[in-house]
Amino acid sequence: TGAPARYYFAYGSNLWHKQMRSRAPSASPVSLAVLRGFRWTISARGFANIVMSAPDEVWGLVWLVTAFDEAVLDRYEGVAQRSYDKYDLAVLLPSGEERICLVYVDPTQGEGRPWAEYVDRINAGLKDTLLPEQYVRDVI
């Protein structure tokens, strides 16, 4: 049998279920979650990113992904080209449980403006994944 499934924390365009399912067809949404000690931003490349920031937190969606799904996500996230690096980080579920999740982080910490088509994908994700209203208004 293959490698076991693992948790993946999406905080950008993979909040959009249609995009996520097209990239990782076996993935299933698990729960909203929060990643503490980070801040959501748009990278210099124009895509969502997170940067360490002690007082802040990032909301997102935890997905359960297979090893095949993860390999496909790695390609989309440009892991081989170092567009994004992979980390295992602890997120907090609304139940109070912690989950260790795969999280993609752009190693370029500079900030920029989002691409127009990326704004559309983020907005589609925000319709699919109902993050806290205050967070969306104040952060995203």
TrEMBL record:
It is an enzyme of class 4 (lyase). The keyword Lyase applies. GO terms for molecular function: gamma-glutamylcyclotransferase activity. The keyword NADP does not apply. The active site is at E77. Substrate binds at Y8, F9, A10, Y11, G12, S13, Y118. Keywords: Lyase. Its EC number is 4.3.2.9. This is gamma-glutamylcyclotransferase. It comes from Calocera cornea HHB12733. The lineage of its organism: Eukaryota, Fungi, Dikarya, Basidiomycota, Agaricomycotina.
